[in-house]
Amino acid sequence: MSVTHFRACHLCEAICGLAIETEGERILSIKGDAQDSFSRGHICPKAVALQDIQNDPQRLRQPVKRVGDEWHTIGWDEAFELVAHRFAAIQREHGNNAVGVYMGNPNVHNYGSMTHGNYFLGQLRTRQRYSATSVDQLPHHLVSLWLYGHMLMIPIPDIDHTDFFLMLGANPIASNGSIMTVPDVGKRIKELKGRGGKLVVVDPRRSETAEVASEHLFIQPGTDVALLLGLLNTLFAEELTKASPALDATLGLNEVAAAVRPFSAEKMAAHCGITVEQIKQLARDFAAAERAVCYGRMGVSVQRYGTLCQWLIQVINLVTGNLDAPGGSLFPEPAFDVVSKGRGGHFNAWQSRVSGLPEFNGELPSAVLAEEILTPGEGQIRALFTSAGNPVLSTPNGRQLDEALAGLDFMVSVDLYINETTRHADIILPPTSSLEHDHYDITFNNFAVRNVTRYNEPVLPKPEGALHDWEIFVGLGQAFARVNGQPARETMPPAEMVDLAMRSGPHGERLSLAELQQHPHGIDLGPLQPNLLRRIQTESKKIELAQPLMLQDLQRVAAELQGLMPQQGELRLIGRRHVRSNNSWMHNYQRLVKGKPRDQLLMHPRDLAERGLQDGQLVTVRSRIGAVNVLVSATDEVAQGVVSLPHGWGHNRSGTQIEVAERNAGVSVNDLTDERFFDPVTGNAAVNGVRVEVVAA
């Protein structure tokens, strides 16, 4: 007899509701949950492939130990003891910082990693901690820490109520939203346009979202800062600013207005490829809209002015009366309120050993991980722990990191696969699959366009001898404590932690784990509402707008303006997203890689002609750090001077066990991105706007 289970998909940020039909332990179908009020039955191909992940014969199910070129299954207790003894010995000999940590993106999609990761990792007491955050969204967090007092107080576009949506460097039709949890975004965009609203997309590529926008403006990679400065300057110069409660609670507005005065639309237009009149009209239309929101995502963050861009976006929303206002940008108030439960974060309390880049909330920029392994001296990383990460394919200059990992004394990975990174591990500890454990979305409810909550029961039973990720962290932590002669801390399952957090949260009078278990389709807690002034966590309880590092960074822009736009014949590289892919680990499922190849280099026909190249030809793409050979596809969906490669491919390294991915290897864009090319404010990797040349292979 078949049974239908209801749960949310947590492969990406959209957390769409699913209806999963099973018979015994066999999955019969995966469909959208029409009764989920948030996703409204929406589903994408990734969710359907959950069954492929579950059934993949190459997914690891027991701990393995590398012996030469072979992998041998071992028991959990043996694995925990081996890891604990090796890490403890390395730290005794070389210091705590000799052990490094890298946490990949899927950790924030898995609440067991969120609640229990530090049960073990905190005991390492290392400053050599890294994550995908600094190849992705670090500018968002730092700006929120500065302006609002907490790194997770990130205002979210109120897409369901706005009249004018200005979107830079984002493609939610492909991504299902990013730092904007927005399932069924295509329908929401239709509804926006249907009520007379407008979506304007600014992007170097005419993306899937740009195709359905009211207007698309091409921009050269890395020049968004010039557009944003031109917009803000126009708002001040033409007195288009609006009073608001948030503006009344702001410090430093006059200082900011004076600082952007030199950056007129007339001066900025030549540096971003958007005309003076377009910049000015965009500012006027934005200011004239009753409810408007400016939002910039991946393409804006991962460039050399990523932090400054995110700051300027906040200033634009603030001065037009759209910060903390319906239809503008609002702060979610989820059932599990991470803002009230944790500290706001810290910045630049120490710096990286070799390049001196700043830490953020205890993590150093991932761009320096390889040099911290390769450079001898006190504090050199000699052992590494990774969890759900593949930095060889997902961080700049992956080849250099590949070389660095090969020279480690010891490496441990919590992962489902032997991939391009974990092939270097000595021990791999695989957790249960997505469908074998329960889940509550701690992270992405905090970024959702509505306040929602949902507890997800496991669909399939936990296999005998398997451990959930949180149990792995507890096992490691207990073993490490024993080796060091310390008592192990008591803990509780993640679900109990969530229950306590909900009961003491903003909706605690009506929410508990037991209540959520009675609502398998989730509970809608209503639209986002203004709440910043009662929740702001800066010391002054004001929006601290005139951040010294941002005002200082404007001087960098002024000094580098002439280099913003590509020079004659120069090409700049950007990435791109596809709805069937999220990160490198999703390429081992035929359902997600079938169809037309998605790993080609996109290039404008005029750029091809100028170089004597043709559509479909094998070309060599070169940057400062390396070269790749790839098929080129001619298209006018990228601006002239722009070439595009997708992220996460490059499954052509030996020693992996991901056969489907290997048959569809592609090339890694991070064999071209440059670890020396970053935002100097934060050290966040600048993987967009890398200078490259393209020649016949």
From TrEMBL:
A family per Pfam: Molydop_binding
Keywords: Iron, Iron-sulfur, Metal-binding
Record carries keyword ATP-binding: no
Record-annotated 4Fe-4S Mo/W bis-MGD-type domain positions: 1-58
Entry-linked SUPFAM superfamilies: ADC-like, Formate dehydrogenase/DMSO reductase, domains 1-3
SMART domains per UniProt: Molybdop_Fe4S4
Alphabetized InterPro entries for the sequence: Asp_de-COase-like_dom_sf (IPR009010), MoPterin_dinucl-bd_dom (IPR006657), Mopterin_OxRdtase (IPR006656), Mopterin_OxRdtase_4Fe-4S_dom (IPR006963), Prok_Mopterin_Oxidored (IPR050612)
PANTHER family attached to this UniProt entry: ASSIMILATORY NITRATE REDUCTASE CATALYTIC SUBUNIT, TRIMETHYLAMINE-N-OXIDE REDUCTASE
Family statement: Belongs to the prokaryotic molybdopterin-containing oxidoreductase family.
Protein name (record): Molybdopterin oxidoreductase family protein
Protein source organism: Halopseudomonas sabulinigri
